[in-house]
């Protein structure tokens, strides 16, 4: 029986699950799992917390990845070793475009690879793109739930403060080579900043798996504080969309490829 170290999981525990929702925050795992008809906790080791949930009789995993590409890659690698083949990030993000509001969700079609970890899986020229059926399911879910959503390009960064040109850091200093990059991403119609999508999408495509990402907007670029009420709004909407999307993926004519 295969056991994976960082996640502290076995093949037997996941009961044949082939699809996983991946929040960053371990505290978000239970919030997601409880939205399914039934669920149970499986493991909690380091930043990796996992619960098993069900759509009907089909098992679905919810596993936290921690923050950033390196820990996300560990979660994906080890879940893949156990048989998971579809991965959907359920995250939070900062909006870059003026039309995007707090609480909206961003459905990523592709990601700018500034996070670093994906370079260990494919050269920089290799695109970080989401699986089209996952994008469609996320969009359909947001429409059904009447949650404002935006579909497009995400920028994944290696760091939260200088990498996103934030001014609320300890040093309040940004290296010269990073200054002005946010304006450039805005002009290139990039929708949001976050830290994991590019890693997930690159790994999934490069290894022949399926990946997607939905992020709730919890702040806007230029803000200096993420308020608790904004975090709740963005988090709850991303969770609702992700759970409904999984239900759609597992109950449509395409469901056979996701189980």
Strand content: 25-35%
What is the CATH architecture term? 3-Layer(aba) Sandwich
The Cα radius of gyration reads: 17 Å
Largest sheet: 5 strands, mixed, barrel
- The amount of helix comes to 25-40%
Strand order of the largest sheet: 7-11-10-8-12
Q: What is the assigned CATH homologous superfamily? A: Nucleoside phosphorylase domain
CATH class: Alpha Beta
Low-confidence stretches: none
User: How would the global form be characterised?
Assistant: globular
What class do helices, strands and sheet pairing give? alpha/beta
Instruction: Indicate the mean pLDDT.
Output: 95
Number of strands: 12
Q: The CATH topology is what?
A: Rossmann fold
Name the helix and strand elements from N-terminus to C-terminus, one letter apiece.
EEHEHEEEHEEEHEHEHEH
Number of helix segments? 7
Number of self-contained structural domains: 1
Spatial separation of the terminal alpha carbons: 21 Å
What would you note in describing this structure?
The chain has 259 residues and is of the alpha/beta class. The protein has a single domain, classed as Nucleoside phosphorylase domain (Rossmann fold). Helix content is 30%, strand content 30%. The protein is built from seven helices and twelve strands. The strands form two sheets. Strands 7-11-10-8-12 form a five-stranded mixed barrel, surrounded by four helices. Strands 1-2 form a two-stranded antiparallel ribbon. Strand 1 and strand 2 form a beta hairpin. Helix 3 packs parallel to helix 6 and helix 4 packs across helix 7. The protein is globular. The two termini are 21 Å apart.
């Amino acid at each position: 029986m295969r056991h994976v170290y960082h996640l502290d999981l076995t093949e037997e525990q996941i009961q044949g699950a082939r699809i996983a929702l991946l929040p960053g925050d371990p505290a978000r795992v239970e919030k997601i799992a409880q939205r399914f008809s039934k669920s149970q906790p499986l493991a909690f080791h380091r930043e990796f917390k996992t619960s098993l949930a069900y759509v009907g009789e089909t098992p679905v995993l919810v596993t936290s990845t921690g923050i950033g590409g390196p820990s996300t890659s560990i979660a994906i690698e080890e879940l893949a070793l156990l048989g998971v083949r579809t991965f959907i990030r359920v995250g939070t993000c900062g909006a870059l475009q003026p039309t995007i509001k707090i609480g909206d969700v961003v459905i990523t079609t592709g990601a700018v690879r500034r996070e670093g970890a994906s370079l260990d899986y494919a050269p920089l020229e290799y695109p970080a793109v989401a699986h089209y059926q996952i994008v469609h399911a996320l969009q359909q879910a947001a429409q059904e739930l009447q949650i404002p959503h935006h579909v497009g390009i995400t920028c994944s960064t290696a760091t939260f403060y200088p990498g996103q040109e934030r001014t609320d850091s300890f040093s309040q200093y940004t290296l010269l080579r990073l200054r002005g990059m946010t304006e450039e991403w805005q002009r290139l119609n990039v929708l949001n900043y976050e830290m994991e999508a590019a890693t997930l999408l690159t790994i999934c495509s490069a290894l022949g798996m399926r990946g997607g990402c939905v992020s709730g907007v919890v702040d806007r670029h230029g803000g200096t504080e993420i308020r608790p009420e904004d975090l709740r709004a963005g988090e709850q909407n991303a969770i609702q969309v992700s759970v409904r999307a999984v239900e759609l993926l597992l109950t449509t004519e395409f469901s056979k490829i996701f189980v």
